[in-house]
Design brief:
7 helices, about 210 residues, alpha+beta, about 30% helix, Aminopeptidase, binds coenzyme A, 8-stranded mixed sheet, globular
Length: about 210
């Protein structure tokens, strides 16, 4: 494997610099900056606390219950999660008080029987303060292009639910292609279970040279 993802907390989170990135990524960074947002990489204990709080939001609990239930249930859980090799990206809103977390995402080492050749998992969350402003596409693309450039991430794949129309739209828009699907049941944020379909997608590495 060619990548080297972090496996522990960082001392600081650094802004994603347009210098080493492609023209598309530079445009995404500019577009986000015009809207008052910026992207950093690396996870500090302080921002882990912000993720722990954001993971409790309804929309995130609805589609990503393992965030508050497991991955980011506590600082200790987050440390454990990081130890499995995860490169974290933070979407910040600039405001008078400084930087406020508006979203988070990551890539990490992982495989799935549904995705032959997949070696890097991808995940995206936009918090309530950022939702519905068109931030998901540029943030997702910058996680993909940033992780490829900074850490050598390749053969990315993801899993999502068919009913999560916004997420499916964004993933297709940045170049993920459907590779498999499986009928299943999804626990909802209010404790019910609904029928849904798991979708498995992968990103051809050719998308990384855009
Ligand atoms: C899914 C998520 C990342 C989308 O982010 P968002 O801020 O709500 O969405 P955006 O405003 O960036 O818009 C997303 C795009 O999807 C489109 N869209 C929204 N809902 C849609 C739907 N039901 N069907 C199809 N397209 C939809 C929007 O029109 C927009 O398209 P455009 O960028 O081409 O104009 C965000 O809602 C989220 O993090 N939700 C909770 C956690 C989650 O579900 N994560 C994904 C797990 S796989």
């Amino acid at each position: 494997m060619s990548h080297a993802f972090p496996s522990s907390f960082s001392d600081i989170a650094r802004p994603l610099s347009p210098d080493q990135l492609s023209e598309t990524a530079r445009q995404d960074i500019e577009r986000l900056a015009e809207q008052g947002y910026e992207i950093h990489f690396g996870l500090t204990p302080e921002y882990a606390e912000a993720i722990i709080n954001m993971a409790l939001e309804l929309a995130i609990r609805e589609y990503c219950p393992n965030d508050s239930g497991k991955r980011f249930a506590s600082q200790e859980a987050t440390k454990d999660w990081l130890s499995k090799e995860r490169a974290t990206f933070l979407l910040f809103k600039r405001n008078a008080g400084g930087l406020q977390l508006a979203g988070y995402g990551w890539v990490g080492s992982g495989t799935s029987l549904h995705v032959p050749g997949g070696e890097t998992t991808f995940a995206l969350r936009i918090g309530e303060i950022g939702q519905g402003q068109g931030l998901a596409t540029p943030f997702a693309r910058l996680i993909v292009l940033g992780s490829a450039s900074l850490y050598g991430a390749r053969n990315m794949w993801l899993e999502t639910w068919q009913s999560n129309g916004g997420a499916v739209h964004v993933y297709h828009k940045i170049g993920f292609v459907d590779v498999d699907q499986e009928a299943g049941e999804r626990p909802t944020a209010n404790g019910e279970t609904v029928a849904d379909t798991r979708l498995f997608m992968s990103l051809p590495d050719s998308q990384l040279s855009n």
